Amino acid sequence: MAEVLVYVDHVDGAVRKPTLELLTLARRIGEPVAVALGNGAADTAATLAEHGAVKVLTHDAPEYAAYLVVPKVDALQAAHEAVAPAAVLVPSSVEGKEIAARLALRIGSGIITDAVDLEAGDEGGPVATQSVFAASFTTKSRVVKGTPVITVKPNSAAVEAAPAAGAVEGLSVTFSAQATGTQVTGRTPRESTGRPELTEAAIVVSGGRGVNGAENFAIIEALADQLGAAVGASRAAVDAGWYPHTNQVGQTGKSVSPQLYIANGISGAIQHRAGMQTSKTIVAVNKDAEAPIFELVDYGVVGDLFDVVPQLTEEIKTRKG
Amino acid sequence: MSLRIVVTVKYVPDATGDRHFADDLTVDRDDVDGLLSELDEYAVEQALQIAEGRRDEGGDAEVTVVTIGPEDAKDALRKALSMGADKAIHVEDDDLHGTDVIGTSLVLAKAIEKAGFDLVVSGMASTDGTMGVVPALVAERLGVPQVTLLSEVSVEDGTVKGRRDGDTASEQLQAQLPAVVSVTDQSGEARYPSFKGIMAAKKKPVQSWDLSDLDIEAEEVGLDGAFTKVESAAERPARSAGTIVKDEGEGGKQLAEFLASQKFI
């Protein structure tokens, strides 16, 4: 069976969820061979094996943390040469997309980014589904030259356990002249809020202009915490300085695709819709019955979020007993 | 020496319009108004600020904007010129129709090399394709450092520095020029063109290059040269109308009932 390279996104050995989703998708088109780089690379093996990796190629060197993107491209290129895979799958993070693109160029391949689904194609090579134009269209595409390099958005597949050998092998990497081009001179880890990462969360609770002040985001956070959800914000709320940019959902922020999206005080401009329209279930609370967000919802409440949201939070608390 | 800054911009269909695919599954550019991709305005702004900073220190700088696209794409160049860019390059060729991202990066890299550059500034992504990989591809092709997705950028003594806010950490980056930079919408509000700027833009030079000017063969670009193929494009079915209730004191409880019925609580 053909091997499929899966680039592992991990933090010091802790594998991030989108990589586990990739392993599920990779099994549809072949046998997943994972590539884990940097500090803690070898520590990822057990988790990756549990989710279907037949092999885990690892390599650690100071270059991965000290320089931007290119050392990882060099390593993935080395893995590509060693394995000759049927496809290369990379999580659609900002860095993942850059790594994938440079790899594709080097190996003479095409690239598809932000796939939301993947299936084995009839004509050879996987077929990727993408959601485009603010999710108003669904396209199916193939890479027609070289080894398909595809990045996949978080929440595109359910994580499935599928125990496999997960044999760890060291990867031999020679860094290119470009590898040391961009130095990382400082790194401040994001302070953990204790909430799930926005792009990976199964539930996202967002606030917009209607939240009307940074201090009022506390009621959005309280609902999120009852649901174990991530907190999102519209651009209006971010531009007003009420919530950090890292939480912005939309065309110029993050694109999310959770099981449940709850929009509070968000009108639903096209730019915001671009970032959340593929959510499975959409709920909105807004005072304005004419707000375009109501065109998208599975359930909408026309009402003041300052009444509705705390009542909802209380009700969930009560139901959970 | 003059600091040569090249800004890559894209003319995109207005996101608030009704965007569609043409019969050959490329983006339909005839039925919807185009404009300079909003995210590229931030790139133009940062390029202008870097150039202005250079001039304030008694140095010299020149900002060139480059785009690929049909005749209409000149509108995007005019907008950038009216914001304050010095000159523009328009790469136009019938054979470019349907070019994918690999081909686009080839054309841009050749055009940037021909124009001459110390610094390339791009937006974080286009607002139509939204792939966000062109700056990395152009850097790979040019063989220069990529300093991408910056929310802050500065250039001093031949070094570009910036801050990149990633998923798990915020990083300080630094590279020697020449380099490729991309900036996010957090890099700083883009200026509006002044009336004077709009009038001045009419007199600024716009060069037109085709594939032969860039030593690119037709087979390397366009639909036939593409490394990817769109096999189908379907309009997403309209969501079936959801339930909408008016809050009359029980809105939160009703919503909880819905969430429970969907097994979210």
From TrEMBL, chain A:
Matches recorded under PANTHER family: ELECTRON TRANSFER FLAVOPROTEIN ALPHA (PTHR43153), ELECTRON TRANSFER FLAVOPROTEIN SUBUNIT ALPHA, MITOCHONDRIAL (PTHR43153:SF1)
Cofactor: FAD
Domain of life: Bacteria
Function: The electron transfer flavoprotein serves as a specific electron acceptor for other dehydrogenases. It transfers the electrons to the main respiratory chain via ETF-ubiquinone oxidoreductase (ETF dehydrogenase).
Any GO MF annotation of the entry: flavin adenine dinucleotide binding
Residues given in the record as FAD binding sites: 209, 234-235, 248-252, 265-272, 286
Keywords on record: Electron transport, FAD, Flavoprotein, Transport
Cofactor binding comment, as recorded: Binds 1 FAD per dimer.
SMART domains noted in UniProt: ETF
Gene Ontology annotations of biological process type: fatty acid beta-oxidation using acyl-CoA dehydrogenase
InterPro entries associated with the record: DHS-like_NAD/FAD-binding_dom (IPR029035), ETF_a/b_N (IPR014730), ETF_a/FixB (IPR001308), ETF_asu_C (IPR014731), ETF_asu_C_CS (IPR018206), Rossmann-like_a/b/a_fold (IPR014729)
Family: Belongs to the ETF alpha-subunit/FixB family.
Start and end residues of each Electron transfer flavoprotein alpha/beta-subunit N-terminal domain: 4-184
Nucleus recorded as keyword: no
The protein's assembly and partners: Heterodimer of an alpha and a beta subunit.
Name of the protein described by the UniProt record: Electron transfer flavoprotein subunit alpha/FixB family protein
Organism: Streptomyces pluripotens
One Pfam family recorded for the sequence: ETF_alpha
Keyword set includes Transport: yes
TrEMBL record, chain B:
Cofactor: AMP; FAD
Domain Electron transfer flavoprotein alpha/beta-subunit N-terminal, residue spans: 24-218
UniProt key word Nucleotidyltransferase: no
Keyword Transferase: no
GO MF: electron transfer activity
Record keywords, A-Z: Electron transport, Transport
Pfam family, one: ETF
Chain's role: The electron transfer flavoprotein serves as a specific electron acceptor for other dehydrogenases. It transfers the electrons to the main respiratory chain via ETF-ubiquinone oxidoreductase (ETF dehydrogenase).
Subunit structure: Heterodimer of an alpha and a beta subunit.
Name of protein: Electron transfer flavoprotein subunit beta
